[in-house]
Specification:
290 residues, alpha/beta, Rossmann fold, 2 domains, five-stranded mixed beta sheet, four-stranded parallel beta sheet, 10 helices, 45% helix, globular
């Protein structure tokens, strides 16, 4: 009996050790996990660094996070524009271990922004809101994976090609859905939708927050409230982290003239990328069509 127990315990220890040794591709946010999962070989585990429901804009690394980054096989992140808190740690990793999708775009706080400046698509870190942008970046992630797993190079490249085809098809689908409502005006509470706006030629009229650290000033607030009362804006889109109460308070009586819709750009409850983006677009399109 002791011999059987020893053998069983040894086998269980081997299984646990094998599972622990499974290489990990660590991504910062959930939408990037969907991309990585579409590309990685079957024996690679994709994990998300940030807890669900936490904004990446002002996250603070914990000691456990540092350990996870250091022990991962590959780190995939957007770049300093979204995760400035990760920049220093990413620099400490081996050259082939860190993949930034927007490595040359700096965080807004690194520039001398003014309230009247607009948030351009080049500086919008929400790259996953544009399937064609993700399609174009798939090769960057795939190249990092090929360096780590050269024996799986053909498989990774095949998965990349399929992902690129899927993104092209998804873009065509979303473009068709937006076609009849693209001209309808809307306002966003946080200016994080420029990828969608530019890709599908949407009519975003204004934003309360130009980016995560600069709110609209009193003068511009008056102009924005005037816009909301003009009848040319159908919807105000806001994110879960702000909440309907905060948006209502900011809008005041102007909230009676527009429809407010919550959009989650992080896909907290979504199961996969196509369904996440379809659901997001459907909420926008329905509001704009009513």
């Amino acid at each position: 009996m002791k011999v059987v127990c020893a053998l069983l315990c040894g086998w269980l220890g081997f299984v646990v050790s094998a599972q622990a040794a499974e290489p990990v591709v660590l991504v910062t946010v959930k939408p990037l996990a969907w991309v990585a999962q579409a590309l990685v070989p079957a024996n690679v585990d994709v994990q998300v660094l940030l807890p669900e429901g936490v904004s990446p804009h002002d996250y603070q690394l914990r000691p456990a996070d540092v350990q996870r980054v250091n022990s991962s096989a590959l780190l995939v992140w957007v770049g300093p524009v979204l995760e400035p808190w990760l920049a220093q740690l990413a620099k400490q990793q081996a050259t082939d271990k860190s993949v930034a999708l927007l490595p040359d775009v700096l965080h807004a706080d690194a520039h001398h922004h003014h309230e009247e400046e607009t948030h351009t698509v080049q500086h919008d870190p929400h790259i996953w809101l544009d399937p064609l942008a993700l399609r174009d970046q798939a090769g960057v992630i795939a190249a990092g994976l090929v360096k780590l797993f050269p024996a799986d190079a053909d498989n990774i490249r095949q998965r990349q090609q399929q992902f690129e085809k899927d993104m092209t098809a998804l873009d065509a689908e979303l473009s068709a859905r937006f076609a009849s409502v693209a001209a309808q005006g809307f306002v966003v509470y946080h200016d994080g939708s420029q990828r969608l706006v530019q890709r599908y030629h949407l009519n975003q009229r204004a934003a309360v927050w130009q980016h995560e650290s600069i709110a609209t000033g009193a003068r511009d607030r008056a102009k924005l409230l005037q816009l909301l009362n003009s009848g040319s804006v159908r919807c105000v889109f806001y994110e879960p982290e702000y909440g309907a109460d905060a948006v209502n308070t900011w809008l005041g009586k102007a909230s009676l003239n527009v429809k407010m819709v919550e959009l989650d750009p992080m896909g907290a409850h979504a199961k996969n990328y196509p369904d996440f983006l379809r659901d997001l677009i459907e909420k926008m399109a329905r509001c704009l069509a009513d």
